[in-house]
Amino acid sequence: MDITELTPEPPQAAHRPDAHWAAREGDRVLARCSLWWREPPSLQGEKLAVIGHFHAEPGAASAARAILEHACRAAGAQGATLVAGPMDGNTWRSYRLVSDAGRDPPFFLEPWTPLEWNDHWRAAGFAPLATYHSSLNQDLERVDPRVPQAAARLEREGVRLRELDPVRFVAELERLYELSAASFTRNYLYTPLGREEFIDQYRLVEPYVDPRFVLIAEQGGRVEGFLFALPDLLQKQRGVPVDTLVMKTIAVHPDRQAGGLGAWMTAECHARAAKAGYRRAVHALMHDANKSGRISRHTAGILRRYTLYSRRP
């Protein structure tokens, strides 16, 4: 088996990895990955490098372990003290492995990975660095009992909820970017994202957006929070009715982290979804310690679990 360095092809090339390799037997690629060490996410006390664009063919355990070991050695040669993954450069892109698939099929925009990939990473000496989950609310009329009081207080303070204006889609994203830049800075392994890349990411899903389920909270002209949800269009691909809404992002200004705004937006989205005929809502891809996860515990149960791994070079 040979491990060769390659020039990544689109779309991976747009992520600007510092190196990209493939493990081959003859002309057959058995495994591949990229490595970022120049501008990785920051982690206190560590010089981090991240492995992403990971892929292994079924049954290619030896190749998967070999390419992960190769990437770790390369990271160590660049001075990294810890290697994490899978992560395609930063947390704005695809990262984590599905580590407990549950019983439901994948939902729209969910990064889906084979369970055996966890074995490959563990065999290469990796252990869990962080854990995440998605939750499923199967009763959209159930309301967190704390929400009505919080909503009344926020309305008295002048906070108003409105839906996204699709005619001004890019202008709306410009304002949501400013809030995201402020809100997500405390997130685990946060990396700043440029305005243009942020807008490009959301424009990819513009054709699928239903404005009723993109809520923007404002007070005195300032965006205080937003919730971004989309129909689960993978249900349509499977030939079943689309009865599930995927709540992809909830962001609240840091000044309001304890004010109940996230719970209010969640409850409003649930109510709108129920009125539109949806039966379920996925609260997608939350760090186990995030406030958004604490919000969902009052109305939803665990759907899926994910793991981000790390090891010393």
Structural notes for this entry:
The protein has 313 residues and is of the alpha+beta class. The protein has two domains: 2-131, 3-Layer(aba) Sandwich (Aminopeptidase), CATH 3.40.630; 136-307, Aminopeptidase, CATH 3.40.630.30. The chain is 27% helix and 31% strand. It has eight helices and 13 strands. The chain has helices at 61-77, 116-123, 147-156, 169-183, 195-203, 233-237, 261-275, 291-296; strands at residues 2-5, 19-25, 28-36, 48-56, 82-85, 97-100, 127-137, 160-163, 214-219, 222-231, 244-252, 280-287, 301-311. Strands 1, 2, 3, 4, 5, 6, 7, 8, 9, 10, 11, 12 and 13 form a 13-stranded mixed beta sheet that branches. Strand 2 and strand 3 (28-36) form a beta hairpin. Helix 1 (61-77) packs across helix 2. It starts with a strand and ends with a strand. The mean pLDDT is 94.
